[in-house]
Amino acid sequence: MNIRFKATWIVLAVFAVVGPLCSRDAAAQGKTPTEDDYYKMITLPIPESIVLEVGGIDKLPDGRLAVCTRRGEVYFLSNAFSDPPDRLQYKLFASGLHETLGIVYRDGWLYVTQRGEMTRLKDEDGDERADLFETVSDGWGLSGDYHEYAFGSRFDKDGNLWVVLCLTGSFTSDAKYRGWCLRITPEGKAVPTCSGIRSPGGIGMDSKGRMYYTDNQGPWNGTCSLKHMVPGDFLGHPIGNKWYSLSGALGPPPEEPRSGSRFMAEAKRIPQYRPPAIYFPYKKMGQSASGIVCDTTGGKFGPFQEQVFVGDQTLSTVMRCYLEEVKGHVQGACFPFRENFDCGAVGMMMADDGSMFVGGTNRGWGSRGTKPYSLQRLVWTGKTPFEIQEMRAKKDGFELTFTQPVDPAAAGNVTSYKLHTYTYIYQAP
Question: Residue 373: which of 343, 340, 346 has the closest Cα?
């Protein structure tokens, strides 16, 4: 059911912070629903001999999972879709890589994003161990700083892989193209694509193939955010702009933003600057935004088809994002979705069967989830929670769509709602 109500303010990125998954039916029966009533969490056992700090997940043609880790290993998992997962088996496929934070399969190869390069792996002799390691691209720099993470995407419609590169120390740009997004073409060419990145936590696409990454709170980023990337964009952090001198692909560097200003004021002043699609209210909607997946399963994952889900490493949660495009800019609303993961979410995958895999680590970062690493699977039970399904910005307010029927009089009464605004200063350290 759609409900329209007026509000006195509209901002580019709309926040809708609502309660946990709930149900009118359960409330009417005097029961307190739990998240498991709607999205069951299945914990996959990990052998004591394996440190599975999940950095990325993909599905292989034979139904197994390929999981890469921050420790530089790749494992194949058999029977990962069984419930209970008591027949789960692990097979080490590769080791000795450098902090892998992205993995995707194509045409017999596994493409893995390492800290210093994009690599593809293959088993040529049939023993299920990688024996061919080829550098696809190493078109960015590496200084040895602990914070120089590199997150890799899945293939876009043109066969490119996108890589977002964390700044050195998360605030300087000592190595080439740190603070940038590069596209790696099928031929292995690194194409400078966007500047202005600070500290990414994940990268992924929506149902239309638009690419996003999550940036984390810090200098020039008042809170964590989901940022839409279009070639040529400046995404907010100016330290990496010195690398414009290496390539004319994006033209001249953008004008320096004014510290202490506001995001939308600078967007009007700097043509290349694209503000975030969504700001996540700090600590209320997470502290370290991470992996990105989109529900393209056609309803197998519940009532949120084609919406984007974002992990949070610190709070060990997954958030839900409804996105819309207005005048060429993507904006949206964020909602709590599922909490209480065993560890900080990092690597995520939406499977064709309609389940979501979430894996992570707390090493060096810390997390609300108490385990040092984990791999879990969310499965929709078939029950529909009572939630705000969609939230659209209109010229005179907002239009809400709910997952279940609502009383028109109560839902149409503006006093039924309580909204809070969050403003973050756009400023240097």
Answer: 343
Q: Give the span between the Cα atoms of 321 and 309, in whole angstroms.
A: 6
pTM for the full predicted model: 0.94
Q: Are 53 and 363 spatial neighbours (Cβ–Cβ below 8 Å)? A: yes
- 8 A C-beta contact, residue 195 and residue 250: yes
pLDDT tens-place string over residues 179-230: 999 999 999 999 999 999 999 999 999 999 999 999 999 999 999 999 999 9
Q: CB–CB of 358/348 below 8 Å?
A: yes
- Whether the CB-CB separation of 118 and 137 falls below 8 Å is answered with yes
Give 297-302's long-range contacts (Cβ < 8 A, gap of 24+).
Answer: 297/350, 297/351, 297/352, 297/353, 297/354, 299/354, 300/353, 300/354, 300/380, 301/350, 301/354, 301/355, 301/356, 301/380, 302/38, 302/39, 302/380, 302/384, 302/385
- Whole-number Cα distances in Å, 52 to 233, 343, 353, 362, 371: 35, 11, 23, 11, 11
Sign of torsion, CA 234 239 240 246?
positive
User: What is the rounded CA–CA span in Å between residue 134 and residue 330?
Assistant: 37
Task: Give the Cβ contact number of residue 305 at 10 Å.
Answer: 15
**What is the residue type of 201?**
G
For 28-45, what is each residue's pLDDT tens digit?
Answer: 566 788 999 999 999 999
**171 DSSP 8-state letter:** T
Q: Which residues pair with 422 in a beta bridge?
A: none
Cβ atoms of 58 and 105 closer than 8 Å: yes
The DSSP line for 278-295 is EE--TTTS-SSEEEEEE-
